[in-house]
Every structure is written in C-alpha cells, then in structure tokens.
Design a protein that fits this description.
By secondary structure, this protein is α+β, with helices and mostly antiparallel strands. It folds into 2 domains: about 50 residues, no CATH class; about 60 residues, Irregular (HU Protein, Chain A), CATH 4.10.520.10. Helix 2 crosses helix 3. It is elongated. It is about 40% helix and about 25% strand.
Length: about 120
C-alpha cells in the first residue's frame, strides 16, 4: 500500500486509491473491489453507532468516547453557546502498526503473529 500512497500527488490515500489497491491485489473487478471497501467502512460505522468496539489485530481498534458538554463561544459574536455532550470516534493503533510507521523497512516482512 505504501507504493499507492507515494504515487498520489498530495501523499493522501483516498477511498478510490484503496479500491484501486484491492483491485490490483485481488484481481477482482473494480465494482466488486468497491463493494469490499464500502462494506468494511459501513461495518465499522455501524459498529461504532451501536457503541461496539472494533479490533483489527495488527492494525488497531476503533471505539467511541463520550465528550462532555461544555460552554463554548461563538467566534464571530463572542456570545456563550452551550455545546451538548456527544460521542466521538477514536482510533488506537496497535503496537505492530506503530512499529511499521516508525520502521518502514519492517513493513515488508511477514509478521502475522503478535510481537512481544
């Protein structure tokens, strides 16, 4: 996947880039690759809406956190505004992902098991 991110002009991987990578690796038709990527994203969103935690070993976990309500300010008028409590999505990367990001040479090696 690093090659795809490097090819994109702004160094940002988009959903279209992910679809292209799935198409390239799996040799599935583009429509099917698009359905795979969409299904993954929709599954994560549905689980977060239900307050479930998603854990992808070797990658990280997604969950929601509760943010407290607070008093904010309207930046234009300076008037006080009550900001209600809300849930926010939170991603915690795995140790393995952190290691890959900080040591890109290790990304090519096959490490499917947990490293301690």
């Amino acid at each position: 996947m690093a090659e795809v991110a490097g090819e994109h002009e702004s160094n940002t991987m988009t959903k279209a880039d992910l679809v292209e990578e799935v198409t390239r690796v799996t040799e599935l038709p583009r429509k099917e690759s698009e359905a795979v990527v969409e299904t993954i994203f929709e599954s994560i969103i549905t689980a977060l809406q239900a307050d479930d935690k998603i854990e992808i070993r070797g990658f990280g976990s997604f969950r929601t956190r509760q943010r407290r309500g607070r008093t904010g300010r309207n930046p234009k008028t300076g008037a006080k505004v009550e900001v209600p409590p809300k849930k926010i999505p939170f991603f915690k990367p795995s140790k393995e992902l952190k290691d890959y990001v900080n040591n890109p040479q290790a990304a090519g090696s096959s490490t499917s098991g947990a490293q301690d």
